[in-house]
């Protein structure tokens, strides 16, 4: 009778892979507490909490954090509207070029960020649009829409059209059908897509570099601090914040979509 237990070699390989992926993140956390402020010395000569107070009192950190949160929130809102509408059209309507439209929607996330950034910068230059908060939002929305679209279109395709037909037959109008039938079935997919979009936008660097002008989001601030460091541990403290801010939405999206294999009306 075959054993359900994984062989030791597979466990070692899995552990080595996880260590390779997460050890650098753990080092960031350690260096946030080091007493050395000019280099990454290992092991740290000592541990201290003073860099958290220093970071708290740095106005440039707060300005960058505020900008990143605002950009991520608005980009996510734009993505939720456009991504859901695109998903509804592609999954529910039959028209010429539907698959081409689907490909064009997901193309931005498949392209290298440098290509997207250069393309957006060229468009802004030709249209004489000055770099501002809104140019960053437009840049981030290009890939945030894809994340929401992928989640929403998968859920739409697993939701039976007979539910909508039954709702209409029972006298519900379009708004009532949307509110009481469609939204309850796609809500977790939209929430998960929105969380992932927020996380992607919050820590985006490449596209932001081409669309931000002189503004600094938190990742751009971190990059500048690494190039011209003043207090290295402050950068690590900020990196801890970025890890936590992006990790929580990803975990939330995972738990929201983990038990949604069965959708109301599926297969009927």
UniProtKB/TrEMBL annotation:
Gene3D superfamilies: MetI-like (1.10.3720.10)
Keyword Lipid metabolism annotated: no
Lineage top rank: taxon: Bacteria
Membrane topology term: Multi-pass membrane protein
Transmembrane stretches, start-end: 12-33, 67-89, 101-119, 131-149, 182-202, 237-256
Coiled coil: none
Cellular component terms (Gene Ontology): plasma membrane
Any Gene Ontology biological process: transmembrane transport
Pfam family, one: BPD_transp_1
PANTHER family named in the record: PUTRESCINE TRANSPORT SYSTEM PERMEASE PROTEIN POTI
Family: Belongs to the binding-protein-dependent transport system permease family. CysTW subfamily.
Name of this chain's protein: ABC transporter permease
Classification lineage: Bacteria, Pseudomonadati, Pseudomonadota, Alphaproteobacteria, Rhodobacterales
């Amino acid at each position: 009778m075959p054993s359900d237990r994984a062989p030791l070699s597979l466990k070692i390989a899995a552990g080595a892979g996880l260590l390779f992926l997460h050890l650098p993140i753990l080092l960031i956390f350690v260096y946030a507490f080091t007493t050395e402020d000019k280099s990454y010395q290992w092991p740290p000569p000592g541990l201290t909490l003073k860099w958290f107070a220093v970071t708290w009192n740095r106005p440039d950190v707060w300005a960058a954090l505020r900008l990143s949160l605002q950009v991520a929130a608005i980009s996510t809102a734009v993505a939720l509207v456009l991504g859901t509408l695109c998903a509804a059209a592609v999954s529910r309507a039959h028209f010429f070029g539907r698959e081409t439209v689907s490909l064009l929607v997901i193309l931005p996330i498949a392209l290298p960020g440098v290509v997207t950034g250069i393309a957006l910068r060229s468009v802004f230059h030709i249209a004489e649009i000055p770099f501002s908060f809104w140019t960053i939002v437009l840049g981030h929305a290009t890939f945030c829409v894809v994340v929401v679209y992928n989640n929403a279109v998968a859920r739409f395709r697993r939701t039976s059209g007979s539910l909508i037909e039954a709702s209409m037959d029972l006298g519900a109008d379009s708004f009532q059908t949307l509110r009481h039938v469609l939204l309850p079935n796609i809500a977790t997919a939209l929430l998960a897509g929105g969380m992932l979009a927020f996380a992607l936008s919050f820590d985006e660097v490449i596209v932001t570099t081409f669309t931000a002008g002189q503004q600094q989001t938190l990742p751009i601030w971190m990059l500048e601090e690494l190039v011209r460091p003043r207090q290295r541990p402050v950068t690590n403290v900020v990196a801890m914040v970025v890890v936590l801010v992006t990790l929580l939405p990803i975990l939330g999206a995972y738990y929201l979509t983990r038990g949604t294999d069965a959708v109301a009306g599926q297969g009927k």
